[in-house]
Amino acid sequence: MNGIIYCLFTIVVMNGFFTAVHGSLVVLPELLSGIVFMLILLKAALEKTILVSNKYLLLCVMALIHIIIGLVINDVAPGTILTGSRPYLKWIPFFLLPMVFRISEESMKKQLKFLLFLALLQCPIALYQRMFKFEGTLTGDYITGTLGSGGSGVLTLFMLSGIAMTLSFFVSGKIRLPAYIMLTLMLFIPTAINETKVTIFLLPIALFVPVFYGMKDRANLRKMSGIFILGSAVIVGFVSIYDTYYGRGDVVEFLIDRGADYLYSGTEFKEDELLAQKSLGGQVTIQQQKIGSKESGGRLDTILLPIKTLADDPVKLWIGVGIGNASTSIISVFSGEFSSVIGNIAGTTLLSYLLWETGLSGAIAFIVFLVFILNDSRKLVLKGGFLRIFAAGWIAVVSIILVAMAYNNLFYSNAIIFIFAYISGFAVTEAFAKRQSNVQTTIHY
Questions:
Q1: Contact, 438 vs 432, CB < 8 A?
Q2: In-domain check, residue 328
């Protein structure tokens, strides 16, 4: 099983290289996921046991019922269901894997080291892309490391997660200060040169959450002061690098003067030129024109748009337009019914994506899912040894993912969703296994 995990990590992180060979190789993670799913079914059938808390089972059943209701009410086409369900299902087998094939702490240590190696590899490649391959460009969107097309924001999330996990091991005394400084700088450089303004919001989470949960002796002012100085230097470095490379004025001034518009511009999406209307059912209508990202306003605008649009129909507001119905597909006949209208903006962020296709209840369900993982990770902090160190860093990663729901569509980011699902599966499995009051959930036939 370790071989499959290392293979998955390599494929999703080196996505840019694989897809450069042939675009069809983008489905490799899903093929691995299918293999893992079959292995899970086989082992579960033989042992009739899976380590999972009842809260995840209940949430899964409720989500499944909700999705089915949405598909029936919206009369989603079979082809659209087939292609539209992929982003929702492809990562689930890896979340379940640790619950059936128990992953030892030693195995997880080695896997985290391998991920650290892959993360460090991004530094020289990102520098090459910035200084040579895309020299002179006024955008950092092309600085994606090995993650491939559209991976600028994904690269930032990946590197910040690495910074958080590394810091957790440092505050626990497992990494010496010189090594920690070198690792942090190498992890920080790619996200400093790829023009992702969200770094300003997410970097504090990566730098301070592991300290809060991971430091054994809160009175260790020497180590705390060192982390504060390094964190401040990293933030100042980000601002300086951003201003040097992208020449659009001080990023701090941008956040002060235009930060509110970056988050919310108040766009109503009812411009006079968008006259044609298309019914989404009942009295719910939206302009029958593909709305590009430039017209979608700030991040909050893309989130509020589905709420505003579907508000006239309480049923659709609650269940959405059906999975796949707001998504485009490489097979045009399988594209969602409303993909030509909202497909360009529905997938901008995960929160917007869920609100369009699964409604308020679907978005709430996924947030609850992340909160469950967060709480289980917090319980592991109470344990000693490796699990405490791991959990302190993973709490920061889950927190970053929660915030990033409003920034990036994680379902479209294989390097994030697959790795996050697998390691989160490990966290919730260990939390469940360590609770003596709980009993294994047994599958009966």
A1: yes
A2: no
**Sign of the dihedral defined by the CA atoms of residues 433, 437, 443, 445, in that order:** positive
Domain containing 412: what range?
2-253+363-442
Contact call for residues 86 and 412 (beta carbons, < 8 A): no
Chain centroid, CA 138 distance in Å: 26
Total structural domains in the chain? 1
**Which helix H or strand E contains 285, and what residues bound it?**
strand 284-287
Are 412 and 29 in contact, with CB atoms under 8 Å apart?
A: no
Tokens matching residue 311: 């508000």
Would residue 145 be called left, alpha or beta, if left means φ above 0 and alpha means ψ between -120 and 50 degrees?
A: left
In a domain, 124, yes or no: yes
281 three-state secondary structure? strand
Instruction: Compute the residue count for the chain.
Output: 445
Tell me the whole-structure pTM to 2 decimals. Answer: 0.86
Q: How far from 202 is each of 52, 153, 158, 213, 394, CA to CA, in Å?
A: 30, 12, 12, 17, 14
Q: Is residue 349 part of a domain?
A: no
Map residue 228 onto helix, strand or coil: helix
Neighbours of 132 (CB within 10 A): 8
Q: 298 lies in a domain?
A: no
Per-residue pLDDT of the chain (445 residues), as tens digits, is: 889 999 999 999 998 888 888 777 888 999 999 999 999 999 988 887 888 889 999 999 999 999 999 999 998 888 889 888 999 999 999 999 999 999 999 999 999 999 999 999 999 999 998 888 887 776 777 888 999 866 788 999 999 999 999 999 998 889 988 899 899 999 999 988 887 778 888 999 998 899 888 876 654 656 666 666 666 676 676 666 666 655 555 555 555 555 545 555 554 444 333 323 444 544 454 444 434 444 445 677 788 888 888 888 899 999 998 898 888 777 777 777 777 667 566 667 899 999 999 999 999 999 999 999 999 999 999 888 899 999 999 999 999 999 999 988 899 899 999 999 999 999 999 999 887 544 444 444 4
**Phi, psi angle pair for 175, to nearest 5°:** -130, 135
φ, ψ at 49 (rounded to 5°): -145, 140
